[in-house]
Known about the structure:
The structure holds two protein chains of two kinds.
Chain A: H1 2-29, H2 45-54, H3 61-73, H4 87-122, H5 127-140, H6 144-158, H7 178-215, H8 219-226, H9 231-243, H10 245-268, H11 274-283, H12 287-315
Helix pairs in contact in A: 1-12, 4-5, 4-7, 4-10, 4-12, 5-7, 6-7, 6-10, 7-9, 7-10, 8-9, 10-11, 10-12, 11-12
Chain B: E1 3-4, H1 15-18, H2 29-35, E2 55-62, H3 77-86, E3 91-96, E4 98-103, E5 106-111, E6 117-122, H4 136-147, E7 168-171, E8 174-178, H5 185-192, H6 199-202, E9 225-231, E10 235-240, E11 254-261, H7 265-274, E12 279-280, H8 285-294, E13 298-313, H9 318-327, H10 348-357, H11 360-368, E14 378-380, H12 404-413, E15 426-427, E16 430-431, E17 433-439, H13 443-458, E18 462-468, H14 470-478, E19 484-490, H15 498-501, H16 517-527, H17 532-549, E20 552-565
Helix pairs in contact in B: 10-12, 16-17
Amino acid sequence: MFAYTLRKVLLAIPLVLGVITLIFVLVELSPGDATDRFFTPETPPEVRQLIEAKWGLDKPAHERYVITMKNLLTGDFGRSIFQERPVFEIVMEALPNTIQLALMSIIIMQLVGVTLGSIQAVRQYGWADSGISIASLFFYSMPSFWLALMLQLILTLKYPILPSSGMVDAVMYDYMTPGEQILDRMKHLILPGVALSIARAAGIARYMRSSLLEVIRQDYIRTARAKGLPEWKVIVKHGMRNALLPIITILGLQLPFLFSGSVLVETIFAWPGMGRLIVSAIFTQDTPVIIGCFFVFTLLVVAGNLIADLLYSVVDPRIRYS
Amino acid sequence: MLRHAIWPALVLALTACSGETPTPETPTGDQAAADEPKDRGFGNEPTVDELGGAQDTLVIAYQSDADNLTSVVYQAAADGMIIDNINYSSVNPEFDCELTYGPELFDSWEWNEDQTEVTVNLRKGVNWSDGTEVTSADIDFTYDLIADPVVASPRMAYVENMVEGTPEVIDSHTLVFKFKHAYDRTTMEAHISFTPMPHHLLKDADRATLRGHEFGTNPIITGPWKVADWKRNERIVLEPNEAFTGADKDKARIQRVIIKVLPEYATRLVELENGQVDLAQAIQVEDADRLAAEHPEIKLYRRGWRSQDYVAWNQLDFEDYKAKKELHVGEEDWKWEDVDRHPIFGDTATRVALSKAIDVDKLMNDLLTSKVTGEVYAKRSVSTITPALCNVHNNDIEPIAFDPTAAKADLAAAGWTDTDGDGVLDKDGEKLAFTMMTNSGNPRRAKGAIIMQAQLKDIGVEMEIEAIEANTFFERLRKKDYEAALSGWSAGLFVDMTDIWHSGDKYEFNFTSYYNPDVDALIEQAISEPDPAKNAELWKQAQAKIYEDQPYTFLYWMDEIVGVHERFKDAKVDVLSAFRDLRSWWVPAEEVKYKR
């Protein structure tokens, strides 16, 4: 197991470096640079040269690539050209917010997906199965930004029961009791959490349905029923426990979708996370921030997959890594 | 001071929302009372003591976070609006046809006879929020920072015409600014009245990293507001500065101002409607209609003619320009005489004909007119000077009328006829066909481009549209790598046409490579003419000459719509700022929303 983990970690290194190289090339191919936004028709050329020299943008691309890589490998993320602050500091402000949102999304995704999938399996070919199938397909094919806008319109404007943006109430949060503050934070998590996870939940429901259907046809389920166990116990204890195994693997694979989805959802709900950071960094062509963000995202995705792999062997004793 | 107006923002149309049926509410007794104007007029607002202390919270929606509140290095206009509110300005700007300045931190200032020297007297007893008095040393220090290339201040142009060593400190509250020569007085006054920086706090700061200094996010200020909290990408909280030493009438009347960062337009609009936000900028015309119908509590302001759209015609052949540019490296005054002209746009008569074929009134009607009230949020443009500057804008220029028949005749006279019967004009075997680029993410320009494409097709001109990402778009304009471009400018309130219309390769904002020696001469004369009347006359002549040459097809100026909750009285929303002089905004006791 240790050797397996180590091998996976070592394999991740070239992957991360490859991703960073690709991002560097992509940023390089786009015209202009971060300093463009500093210039108006009135900016004297000497100011322009000074600013470019300060950020090393006057150096050729290959030199900057070597410097960027060397810095990254020594743990130096550099400074943001736009904010003039260490990139590490900026990323660390946004990362916990994105992780919070991702966790919320995973919870909604699993809860909704597993429940609906199970209902469908138990009531196979019944009206519930068909109804949920149609609804799943509807949500699965819906772009997350559109769903986000619709949720916002319906639940914050037409029927204002949830907050429309941010992590906390911008005006009243400072005056709330600690209990109210926690509640406020939870309320703010709901809409972005749902927008980000509902399509994935629909996917999970499909997996769960087929997985549970397969399990309930097994001999040991028949045995459990023959023992005279109540049906709910047969399904929940013997059926679902085994049907959940493949769902855990999918969990690790959901991370990239959660992160890419967060780019739009965070923008719409003004969630100060990594997705928004990437968008603004791309618009301002703030290369150090773009690279820092993708570096962290890649690490998280690699780590997510590794954890899912390892979890799989924990929950299913038949699987052993060597 | 023109800024290139491109809108790279993620624009998502709010279609479902506008599909709702408006359900105007009948005003109740309370509402009817609230509808009566309570504005007292500027200068007559109730003082903070009369209001029983500062009341309520104003929430302002911002598209993106502010980035730096250090006056000598900030870039974005959005940052400037905050800086202006948290500091006592050196002079108090007013705008009515032209900018004028009244006393504020500068108690008085006096020009010498030939307008090359000005003696400034500072108001005594104005303190920084840390209790230190504002003195001449702070002003001197500020100008030293601006002039220092290490700081790389974008406002270096402010000191370009000042004598080295300016300002000269006479005593703790008196300074003299000396200029190399006189020019437009308002501009000169703008140049001397830069928001000061605290000498005592920043004198030892590293100038090369001044942009990254903590001061940029947590500044010491002189105005009625201070930055109480700043969470990046979330919100900035302004609270009354309790150490404010200015006049009583200038004390803040609102308890808190929260600048809330909402990157998505649809979200800003939703929050303006559901009351989470009190002020939202740049509201689209169709949304303004709905707001007016459904939300009587939101007052809509028009900011004045602040930005325009135009079509730029590149007069040079790009490939030849690129090749010749390499032969002229370092020649800033190279006027492109040896470069091949663009086969279509190199000819003035052809450009004029194309302008005749574009129906600007239809564009304004389709894109910028309310479908409910018929109110037009646009005005025809004839130059890059905003009509808001009514003394300098040339009102005598008659806009070219839409006349496709005349356009066709003019093109035929220029040699463009349809010889092969394919519906597209041609000359010497070349079709009258070109590509117009515009920036993606701007629905107005996208629609405008399609309308123009159809209009040009009617007279036998084939135009392709290429929508490209904003950064690329801007880069290609500057490099002159395009044929035609649908673009825009936002107007500055100091008049200087040099950067866009003076010839010479160093002026890279002269996107069309426009070269007219008469215009060059007029610009040079105007920028060094101190007499406002003569100065205005020169700028008017330059505008008329440029319009004759039609380097652009000037389209329209647009009015920015700002929505503000009506409980805020004496709200100043104007051409200078979307929220000017926040200190004078106030809320009557019975309308306060957020109580302490």
